[in-house]
Amino acid sequence: MSFLKKIGGKVPKGVYKYKSFEDAQKDTYMLLIKKIKNKEAKIGVIGLGYVGLPLVIEFLNSGFQVFGFDVDEEKISLLKDGKSYIKHIDISIIKKNKLSFCPTSDFTKLMDMDCIIICVPTPLSRNREPDMKYVFSTTEVIAKYLRKEQLIILESTTYPGTTDDDMKTILEKTGLKAGEDFYLAYSPEREDPNNKNFTTKTIPKVIGGYTEKCLELACALYNNIIIKTVPVSSTRTAEATKLLENIYRAVNIALVNELKILFDKMNIDIWEVIEAAKTKPFGFQAFYPGPGLGGHCIPIDPFYLTWKAREYDLNTRFIELAGEINTLMPYYVIQKTTDALNKEGKSLKNSNILIIGLAYKKDIDDIRESPSLKLIELLKEKGSNVDYNDPYISHTHKMRMYDFKMKSIPLTKVNLKKYDCVIISTDHSSYDYEFIAEHAQLVIDTRNVMKNAKGNNIFKA
Predict the structure, then answer these.
(1) Residue 326 CA to chain centroid, in angstroms?
(2) Helix, strand, coil shares of the chain as percentages rounded to 5?
(3) Which 8-state DSSP code applies to residue 257?
(4) 214 belongs to the catalytic site
(5) Per residue of the chain (461 residues), what is the pLDDT tens digit?
(6) Which of 105, 113, 228, 392 has the most other CB atoms within 10 Å of its CB?
């Protein structure tokens, strides 16, 4: 048998053609590229949330053996029972491939993995600085079991330099060298929960490697599950790409939020202005105002770059201003609510307030960084009695910043009438907004869902 046949065909670009198969076996790159090509590589995904679980599904669909790692024993138990804990994620493929998928909290199994993908949270501290404990602690765990011929990929959003500086330093304390003994890459997640038009498979995947071989291995891996991969020159470029994407959105949302406040004072409807402006077929992309930013990306990612910029004696004033505007939007909603109640001869203190929608965006069950949570906190501080309704979130759970211990209130005619004010924070498609407008005493609409509703009890915020 020829050497090329033994390693599965053509030698990849940038790799020397060895004189014998035995010589090639000594090269960790060649061994790993063969495993990936033949789908013999064992895939380990660390973090089985909104990013990690869709990756697991795609690798299973492609025919790989997958291990899902998480510290949350409840998630592990549910997956073993073939149950999903995320509303929009269909895990039927997991049920069909029980022999190919192993959910586990046993991190010693990392030593058996050929490719390890990190999908853990990267939140902000209370001082709006990067909280990297999940990434770094995960990297330290990987280092305990690191061996030659492994590919490590970070997907969590972070500042440039995390992969090829911070993570590399931790991993190389083992004595193994990145790019030679093991391989290191960064590929930012681009998940948009419950987006019917784009999935993990169809969203192009940006990939940066520590070395050329690292990049080639990461591309080879993702080419099995992603329709289009986008290789870039370095991990830092890939890290910066993700930040740019979300900073772009944060800045433009801040712009329309600021214009909403201004146009409100000028008695101009910002929503009507946006609808008219987006008829221009070039040079304009519509962004919409709201009660604040939510999700794990847009409210957080820009501050990763502002923090890193200080290392270079630069102030990212544009980004910080956008963050300031977006952060203030829940306070604006509270002020509009106060004004509306005052017109009814009521005060915010001791008023009964119902928040409609707890998720950070419509039709999902994700409450990470949701502006609804901030609204509840502010209302409680003002002395209001607060409840919420969300068809996808039956009760709140403990989070980093909040622990409300609340349950969703049924949205009935009787319940609506007993609240002094209803604040529409999340515009779920399942809501009957005419029903809400008809039976609520007062409605604060932050999403423009009441634009066609009749009545003097509706106020935009």
Answers:
(1) 18
(2) 40, 15, 45
(3) H
(4) no
(5) 333 344 344 444 444 455 555 555 457 898 999 999 999 999 999 999 999 999 999 999 999 999 999 999 999 999 998 888 988 888 888 888 888 999 999 999 999 999 999 999 999 887 788 999 999 999 999 999 999 999 999 999 999 999 999 999 999 999 999 999 999 999 999 988 778 889 999 999 999 999 999 999 999 999 999 999 999 999 999 999 999 999 999 999 999 999 999 999 999 999 999 999 999 999 999 999 999 988 778 888 888 999 999 999 999 999 999 999 999 999 999 999 999 999 999 999 999 999 999 999 999 999 989 999 999 999 999 999 999 999 999 999 988 789 999 999 999 999 999 999 999 999 999 999 999 999 999 999 999 999 887 778 999 99
(6) 113
Q: What is the CATH number of domain 3-233?
A: 3.40.50.720
- Please pick, among 115, 119, 219, 297, the residue that the annotation labels catalytic: 297
Q: Buried b / exposed e across 229-249, counting CB within 10 Å, b at 16+?
A: bebbebbbebbbbbbebbbeb
State whether residue 236 is helix, strand or coil. Answer: helix
E-strand stretches of 187-276? 205-209, 229-232
Tokens of 177: 């060298």
User: Looking at this protein, which amino acid is placed at residue 441?
Assistant: Q
CATH number of 254-460: 3.40.50.720
Do the beta carbons of residue 25 and residue 2 sit within 8 Å?
A: no
Amino acid at 339: D
Residue (of 78, 135, 144) closest to 106 by Cα position: 144
Give Rg (Cα) of the chain. Answer: 25
Q: Where on the phi/psi map is residue 452: left (φ > 0), alpha (ψ -120 to 50), or beta?
A: alpha
